[in-house]
Amino acid sequence: MFTDPIADYLTRVRNASRAGHRVVEIPASNLKKEVTKILFDQGYILSYKFEEDEVQGTIKIALKYDKQTKEPVIKKIQRISKPGLRKYASSDEMPRVLNGLGIAIVSTSHGVMTSKRAKQENVGGEVLCYVY
Questions:
Q1: pLDDT at position 3, please?
Q2: Tell me, which fold does domain 5-63 have in CATH?
Q3: What are the coiled-coil residue ranges (predicted)?
Q4: What stretches of the chain show up as alpha helix (H) in DSSP?
Q5: Segments making up each domain of the chain, as ranges
Q6: How far is CA 26 from the centre of its chain?
């Protein structure tokens, strides 16, 4: 059992991209599925597939690499709010990652979204991670 399943998710993606793997498998949860959808919509991963089985299911993520340099698209993926120290931001205090080049994923009362969308919808929430 993990004390922080989101940190485990981010670590698996980080390690697989650094090792040059094409696909990474992660145990599924609803929060992880939403984070995966955001990473796909923002262009950080190539594709994803949710596989259901009798227990909990898995998420298969196809990682994305630069065509010329073979470098992973995800340069850094960093957990911000941890179980021991939660980080919250109001709509006017939403973080900007690399001056707008990266994204911050936020868990709000309206669902999981990027910080940019949370600012547009005028909602605050828990800052889960930064991706760039």
A1: 86
A2: Ribosomal Protein S8; Chain: A, domain 1 (3.30.1370)
A3: none
A4: 5-19, 30-41, 115-121
A5: 5-63, 77-131
A6: 12
